[in-house]
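re: ur question from earlier - yeah i can do the single chain one, its not a big deal. heres the input i used so u can compare w yours
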Amino acid sequence: LDEDGQVVGFVNAVGDGVLSAYIPLLEVLESHRGHGIGTKLVTSVIDALAPCYMIDVACDDDVVPFYERLDFTRSNSMIRRDYAAQSGVPRSVG
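and the output i got, formated as tokens:
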């Protein structure tokens, strides 16, 4: 939260609580980037997921250095995207 109580960043993670977890989304408002907010958010998730064997992130090349500073290692990944559903609003089927 900023000084006005507005949300400036968030992170979420999904996992099985034992072996693996995935961080699908980290967002920090552009105006607040570079102040350690993303680092604090990710390290808090890592701490919460500490017993997990693996914590994975799929990210664009421009943010690889950010995750490398947090001890993540570059790897290959495969992704599938339905950009029509990117807003999070369910599409009607049929």
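The chain has a mean pLDDT of 91. not sure if urs matches, ping me
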